[in-house]
Each structure stands twice: as C-alpha cells, then as structure tokens.
Amino acid sequence: MNENMSVKAKLVIVIGPTAVGKSAKAMELAAQLDGEIISADSRHVYRGMTIGTNKPTADEQARVRHHLLDLRDPHEPFSLSEYLDLARAAIDDVSARGKTPMLVGGTGQYVRAVIEGWQVPEVPPNEDIRRRWTAYAEAHGAEALNRELIKLDPAAATTIDPRNVRRVIRALEVIEVTGQKWSDLQRKSPMDSGLLQIVNVALPREVLYERADARILQMVRDGWLDETRQLLQFLASVGIDAAKAKTLPSMSALGYTDMIEVALGQLSMDEAITRIKADTRRFIRMQDAWFRPYWK
C-alpha cells in the first residue's frame, strides 16, 4: 500500500478485494486529503440495497461526501457507459471545487474503465439477439454463457463479472452485431499515470477470508433478510415477482438470491450463509485478476 499521497494527484484510487477494509482506508485518506469519495461499486447504485452491499453508512456519508450512491431502483437498468459518464463528471466536479476525488470500490470493471479511459461502443440494442442469449443463459446457466464469451473474446471475459448475465449478454450482442470483438471496440484514452495515486489495500488470503466470513454474519445480524423482504415487496409493487426478481442485474450482488430463497422458505439461513461464504471467496479470487495490473 502506498501511504505517500501526492499533492499533484488528480485522482486517488483505493482498490482491493471485498472485506479488506477499502472503505475504512478511504475515510482515513479523505480526512487527510480533503477528499470526496466516488463509488466504484456496481451495486451501490441501487436504492434499498444497503446491508447486503455494505454501502457506506449514514455516519460515513455525513463525515465525507460520497458520489454515485442510490442512483436507481433495483429493477431499473444501469449501464457501464452511464457509470463512466457519471464518474467522470463527478471527478471533474470534485476537482473543480479544489478537493481530491477518490475512486473507491471493488468492481474491477468500473475501476479499469475509468483508469484506462474506456469509450464504451454505442451499439443499438438488438432484442432478438438478447432474447436468444437470455434463453441460453436460463437453459444452461451463467457459467456456460460466460464460456461462450471466452471463446469469442477472451480479453472481454477478463473485464466482465461472469455473474452479471446482462453484461455478458451485452458483450455477446455487440460482437454479433458488429462482427468485431467487444474488447477491440472499447477505444481507450488512458489517464495520465502521473496524475493517479493508487492505494492497494491488501491482507493475507486466509485473514481476508476470515474477515469476509465475519462480515457476512454481521450483515445477517444487521437485518439482511428483512432488507431482502422489503426489496421483494417493492418489486412486487412494480409488477416483478420473486422469480423474476432473482434474474435482475441488481440481484447478482453477492447473497441476494440466496436471501430471496430464505425469504421464500426455499433455503435455510445456515445453507444460505454457507453458499454466500463460498461465493464470496470465489469473488475475492476474481478481484485478484481484475486488480492485478495495478498492484505495486
């Protein structure tokens, strides 16, 4: 971890795997640097998903201004291109006010897209292709869908969360429509590395696993199941039943589909916790790959 913050840095980036302590480190640095935090967590954009996504608390948001939280209801779409537009605008706004913008989060795709200056291709949606790949995912599962992307564009597969079926389908859709690789279409204008200060928050893997397990138990004690029930009630009010809710991109956040099954009486809490712990460990290993280019 680099503790020597450069006063010339245009953007401070705090990265690391889930449960490692990024938020605590970011709060500490924000106080030192007169900083404001710009979320790089793809699930913090959804309203009502607070406990299960470990969203910054009200106290943390009162002490340090946070950006890009609670932008959408959980059934509303939110694209990578939208994130990039909002993140870049927030970085410019914070800088213009003489403060230090700090990009903080564990969604590797978001972090890399900002640092590497991705220009996401503007390809109109093709509903026929989307329906076909959606049917394939429903029949064969997210892992099989991701294997299709790996075959067609291995580079793209390293930057897209395989659990995010919607994004994998979008990449496959663009490949079919254009005849080109998704990764080739993502034009890049990388940020000047001299204006970046990257802070890698790290822990030994076994310690990290123990912290992640403990955090899961704490989220359950804090009312994760009740939060999920409230989400299901809200979604039902807009015409989305529990089965459909499980397929929403927002619900690919770790643990929410398991909590839905608990709420429906289809799974015990102990079984859900076991699953979530295993999924979180897999996610931590994936984050290693996403952030490896920025380790120092």
What does this molecule look like?
This protein has about 300 residues and is of the alpha/beta class. It has three domains: about 10-120 and about 185-205 and about 290-295, Rossmann fold (3-Layer(aba) Sandwich), CATH 3.40.50.300; about 125-185, Histone, subunit A (Orthogonal Bundle); about 205-285, Crystal structure of tRNA isopentenylpyrophosphate transferase (bh2366) domain (Helix Hairpins, Orthogonal Bundle), CATH 1.10.287. It is about 55% helix and about 10% strand. The chain has 14 helices and seven strands. The chain has helices at about 20-35, 60-65, 80-95, 110-115, 125-140, 140-150, 155, 165-180, 180-185, 205-220, 225-235, 240-245, 255-265, 270-290, and strands spanning about 10-15, 35-40, 65, 100-105, 120, 185-190, 195-200. The strands form two sheets. Strands 3-2-4-1-7 form a five-stranded parallel β-sheet, with helices on both faces. Helix 6 packs parallel to helix 8 (about 165-180) and helix 13 packs antiparallel against helix 14. The longest helix has 23 residues, at about 270-290.
